[in-house]
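W.,

You were right to be curious about this one. When I first looked at the sequence I had no strong expectations either way, so I just let the prediction run and decided to look at it fresh. Below is the sequence, 412 residues in total, followed by the output.
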Amino acid sequence: MRLLFCVQRYGEEVAGGSEAACRQVAEHLAARGHLVEVVTSRAKSYVDWADHYPAGPTTLNGVVVHRLSVRQPRDPKQFGPLHGRILRTRRAPLFVQRDWLRLQGPDVPGLPLWLDANAERFDLANFFTYLYPTTAFGLPVAARRLPTILFPTAHEEPMMELRVFDELVRAADGLLCLTPEELELVAQRFRFTPRAEVIGLGVDQNPVGDGRRFRDAHGLGDEPYVIFVGRIDPGKGSDELHRYFIEHKRRHPSNLRLVVVGEPVTQLPPHDDVILTGFVDEQTKLDALAGATLLAQPSYFESFSLALCEGWTFGLPALVQRQCKVLDGQVRRAGGGLPYSGFAEFSEALALLLREPGLRAQMGEGGRKYVRTHYAWDSVMNNYERFARGVIDATSYAAEQSRTRSSPTGPD
């Protein structure tokens, strides 16, 4: 198949969830012999969307990547007040919501023209995440020219209620979600579901990490540590985890440490028991997971947690945010950890896992088996190919039927 992917930013240095998912799916499909191209912005940072990468086509891991310029970086003085107004009312006129989308960024004015000019080269266009202008303005354009699939990567958040997103689900020919909870949320929100399926996301089943190397590099010795992998961002729960952990240590003194691995969007206060690595390469991340005692996933907003699944491949039990339905569902289906809500539950669950090595081992193995059963790359890619071909065939049939009905002589 000739496959196009559209996403807000793309690159090995880009650590965002939907962006990383898009890149992994694109690269695995290219490795299976499909012709795969990506159209995206030149941005590296989702904070300001400023142009970073050179414009034009490049090739990354077998995928041709077309980078288009952003009109201008996000201006907090313009975006902030409008964002607050939008979230307070959620009933702003559509033209105001479209202005909000452009100011949120990345505003890529050349994308519609690029899609119009290049659509005929592809059998199918895939759009990752509903939230940004690349999908909101790009998918309806592509849908007029070729079959489309939307990966909404949706979770419960105020922006999802905005009417400016209504047409996306209706414009797409197919919908692929990463968890049952995501599909249920999308169906309830839009009250309309095209051809849809839960596909999940592939996870490397045999990661290699050197826990001792990470421990030695950070002076951890044999001390137990909880690991968090993800952006340091209030929306990801990292600030709350930091507070909960420090309070737990105040009430229960021990040699337990917290290791935070990820790009700092906001700064966490320094603390002797907290190690902040910042953004690290893939191997360092795997080393950190290999040496950990358990994993914490405190995010309130997830459509699928790759970090959780990667922790399970190392047999790590998990503490997850109960108020995130996706995390709660993943952990309960896998038997791979404990959900919590609030400090008291967090502290009790953490203490329980630390004092019960047998329970940690049982939950870690449950998570490992769950990932092996549901998220092997070959299985995910087989399901994608089957679904994509079904969308292409159904769209072609519908187009042929439309041509037949409009023909003045009717069918032969």
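Here's what jumped out at me. Residues 2-202+376-406 form a domain with the Rossmann fold fold (CATH 3.40.50.2000). And, maybe more interesting for your project: The chain has a mean pLDDT of 92.

Coffee later to discuss?

I.
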